[in-house]
Write a structure and sequence with these properties.
Layout (H helix, E strand, L loop, with lengths): L1 H9 L5 E4 L5 H10 L4 E4 L3 H8 L10 H9 L3 E4 L10 E4 L14 H13 L4 E5 L7 H14 L7 E5 L18 E5 L2 H12 L6 E4 L2 H32 L3 H8 L23 H10 L6 H26 L9 E5 L14 H11 L3 E5 L5 E4 L2 E4 L6 H5 L3 E4 L8 H7 L3 E3 L13 E3 L1
Parallel strand pairs: 1-2, 1-4, 2-3, 4-5, 5-6, 7-8, 9-10, 9-13, 13-14, 14-15
Antiparallel strand pairs: 6-7, 11-12
Helix pairs in contact: 1-7, 5-6, 8-10, 8-11, 11-12
Length: about 425
């Protein structure tokens, strides 16, 4: 089976299936199709399927012309019908892995996708989980589901592995195509053929590890590392504020050291699809082994506290004008979780706005990339535009995303107070009304 698959990969005779057409799945499907592999995208959302089949892009990291071309050429199609899994030789599962209401892993999307794949799985298929999850998911959850649902045996009739997604929306340098890939599979043959499939598509290196659990833990390490270091600098930012020290200048000075230090910056909290969530997966799994991840949990507590801390800081700024949070007019600039993108998944700005609302503030937002967002079942609409008069009408402007398209000099010139949680106004010379996190 291994040699047959290697030959089919070499001759571009593999048909690919990608389950989940979101920020991870759609770019992957596009790259597979561009590389010459006929690809089928699977998604339960009919609207996404319709958009793909019409060649309409909805993901920032996908080039519109690329999507349209491969759809017109018949290299990429999408469907809600999982029976077409029976036609593919390679399946990548790229569905969300959020947290539930109790901050525990919600693996329902992964489990349900595996069940659908199992119903139609045929011999000789490679199955790869790309969704970020806790160590052990591939072997403890996915493998039994696929074997029981298909009647096939892993390693004999099909190959199974884990290759964590590495998607950084808005990154101008690294995309799906050129980002190095890690592959861990069940058995040496599975590792070899799955890695060969990625090498046939991607420009980035493919690094093979000895098991899915290694690859799963590797992904958790990547993002927990960032969570902990951001937690450290956020805690230092709170201390520096009390001491009257500029934390941004501190970090900039520290990063001049050419070894042993990587710069992380404070902010209103953590956002995105991985960094705020992955440590919870690891902490949850660690309890199964009677292990308490104290350092990780401490950093999560610090980062989770930042939106509330930002509102407390805002109250102190308003106090300078003898104004209370209750009834104050506040404008939040930016609801995206990072600059210059339209992605607000887990954005701390949403929690900052929520805390202002709870305090009784009249809070509006403006984001040039996000005209509206949905949070806890409610749709929030932003200002269509801002100008000098608009800025001047607020008691406080809070910068919650450092979009480079905004005219910060004009904002500073017309605002009563600016609370800059992202150091976005660092180039503005007139700083008397600017307060840094």
């Amino acid at each position: 089976m291994k040699q047959m698959l290697l030959d089919k990969i070499k001759n571009k005779q593999i048909e690919v299936g990608v389950v989940g057409l979101g920020y991870v799945g759609l770019p992957l499907a596009v790259e597979k199709a561009k590389a010459g592999f006929k690809t089928i995208g699977f998604d339960v959302q009919a609207e996404k399927v319709k958009l793909v089949n019409e060649g309409h892009n909805y993901i920032g990291d996908v080039v519109d012309a690329d999507l349209k071309q491969i759809v017109e050429e018949g290299m990429l199609s999408a469907t809600t019908d999982f029976s077409f899994v029976g036609e593919v030789d390679f399946v990548a599962i790229c569905v969300p892995t959020p947290l539930d209401a109790y901050q525990q892993p919600d693996i329902s999307y992964v489990r349900d996708s595996a069940k659908e794949v199992a119903k139609h799985l045929k011999k000789g298929t490679m199955v790869v989980l790309e969704s970020t999850t806790y160590p052990g998911t591939t072997e403890e959850l996915i493998k039994p589901i696929l074997e029981e649902g298909s009647g096939l045996i892993c390693g004999r009739d099909f190959y199974l592995g884990f290759s964590p997604e590495r998607v950084d929306p808005g990154n101008a340098v690294y995309h799906t195509k050129n980002t190095p890939k890690v592959v861990g599979a069940i058995g040496r043959d599975a590792t070899e053929v799955i890695s060969a499939m990625y090498r046939a598509v991607l420009d980035g290196d493919v690094y093979e590890v000895s098991s899915p659990a290694i690859a799963e833990m590797e992904k958790i390490l990547e993002n927990t590392y960032r969570n902990i270091n951001i937690g450290l600098v956020n805690e230092l930012a709170m201390l520096c504020e009390r001491m009257g020290i500029n934390i941004w200048e501190v970090v900039d000075a520290a990063k001049t050291k050419p070894y042993g230090f990587q710069a992380f910056y404070p902010g209103p909290g953590l956002g995105g699809h991985c960094i705020p969530l992955d440590p919870y997966y690891l902490s949850w799994k660690a309890r199964e082994y009677g292990f308490h991840t104290s350092m990780i949990e401490s950093s999560m507590m610090i980062n989770d506290r930042m939106p509330e801390y930002c509102v407390d800081r805002a109250a102190k700024i308003l106090n300078r004008d003898k104004k209370a949070l209750n009834g104050a007019k506040v404008l939040a600039l930016g609801v995206a979780y990072k600059q210059d993108i339209d992605d607000y998944r887990e954005s701390p700005a949403l929690k900052v706005i929520e805390n202002f609302e709870k305090a009784g503030s009249e809070i509006d937002f403006y984001d040039p990339f996000i005209p509206s967002y949905k949070y806890k079942g409610t749709v929030h609409h932003g200002l269509p535009k801002i100008d000098a008069q608009t800025i001047a009408s607020y008691d406080l402007v809070v910068v919650t995303a450092s979009h480079t398209t905004l005219d910060y000099a004009s904002i500073a010139a017309n605002a009563r107070w600016v609370f800059d949680t992202k150091n976005a106004l660092k180039q503005v010379k007139n700083r008397e009304n600017i307060v840094l996190l």
